[in-house]
Every structure is written in structure tokens, then in C-alpha cells.
Amino acid sequence: QAAFVDAEHALDPIRAETIGVNLDDLLLSQPDTGEQALEITETLIRSGAIDVIVVDSVAALVPRAELEGEMGDAVMGMQARLMSQALRKLTGAISKSKTILIFTNQLRQKIGVMFGNPETTPGGLALKFYSSVRIDLRRIEVLKDGEEVVGSRHRARIVKNKVAPPLRVAEFDIMNEEGISKSGGLLDVGVELGLVTKSGSFYNHNGKIIAQGREAARQYILENVKFQEELDKKIREVITTGKKLPKEIGEIEEKG
Q1: What would the pLDDT profile of 161-197 be if each residue is shown by its tens digit?
Q2: Going by C-beta distance under 8 Å and a sequence separation of 6 or more, which residues neighbour residue 45?
Q3: Within this chain, do residues 164 and 193 fall inside the same structural domain, yes or no?
């Protein structure tokens, strides 16, 4: 079971269901303060009943003192202290319960930086220190079907990893009516491994053109379920064995 702590108060259930979220197995909380959000998170972790918790987002975890103060009051460091205290308390409980805790965050610009990276994230340095994996996620391309925008392409860069080699990069599609595109991922990896070939804008398998253009090829894989399942199976086999399979994927009987 999963939980979503919506500190931004921005979750649209209809949109979430459209892109594949199972709302029946999702616990949703929309706390008023940062302290309340982190207390709810701690309770869920210590219960041991939740597999994954998403806190959206660190930037929206507003300390109670800031909410109760006046506009313009100085609040330097309050959010960073809140995050530091919370993570010190949560780390041990997360390890014991085996819960995955995901924090989303925003990028901000440092003032007056002339050299080096001007980007920073709100909430202080504690989250960077305690996290096992940090992912820098950016949109790199808008995907179109003709003139209509149908999704976007994103690049995920692993900037920290305690459980595997860091600094690896992956790209994937997020479609407006589908969410993360499995068919797009299969197409990219299939081309990389030579299971699907590309000549110019045409995509082929077993010498037969299946589509012209990446979006058309992605749609072909999405609509041909048997082909999609077999491509997925062969990709996993190639990755596991480390070598190409003797049987071409194009030999699959495609009936639908």
C-alpha cells in the first residue's frame, strides 16, 4: 500500500487515475503545516503497514511558526531545522520498517553566484545527507503527434546512490493520457539492444517496417499486446545473459 502526503494541496484524483494511479490502495493526506506532514509520515512509517510514502514536496513543508507569523517576518533556517530534526528521527524507523520514503523538491537559484552551479534546493542539507538515492529529473523534450502535444520526454540523472553505482542517466516518456510510457521504454531499449532496428525515421523488425516516426512506433507497441509482451521478455533475457538471442523478435506471430 502507498501513501501520498500532499503538502502542496495540488493532487487531482481524476488526473491521477487517468495516468494509472490505483486510488483504492492510496492513502492521501493534505496537512496544514510542515510539522503535521512529518508527524503523519512518521506515524505511517512506524505502523509498518505502508510500502512507499511520497511527500510532495519539501518546498511546501511550511513550519507552523511561519504560518502563524505575519507576512514579512524573518524565517531564516526554520525549514532546514525542521527537516534535519525529522530525518534524524525517521532514519532508524525507515530501516526497521523497510518503507520507501520519497521526497520531491524544487530547484532554486542562488543569488549572486558567478561560478559553479547556481542551483540549490530548499530544506537545507540534511535531506541530501540522509538520502540513499537522489535523482535529478528534468524535462528535455516535448512529444508531439502532428501538431498536438501528447507528452514529454524526461532525463533522470542519479546524482547520489548508496545502493548502486551513481551518476547513471536514463530517459523516459511521460504521456498525457498514460503516465510513464512502458511502450516508449521498450522501444528505446529494443533499439539499443538491436532487437528493433531503425533506418532513418523508419522502425523495423525482421526486415518489416512497423512504423514511421518514434511516436507511431511507440503506438504500434502499445496496441500490439502480444508483440509488447514478447519484446519485454526478450529484452530481459538479453540484459540477463549479456548477449543477443539467436531467435529474432520479428519471428513472433502477430495476431490481434
Answers
A1: 999 999 999 999 999 989 999 999 999 999 999 999 9
A2: 53, 90, 93, 94, 97, 99, 101
A3: no
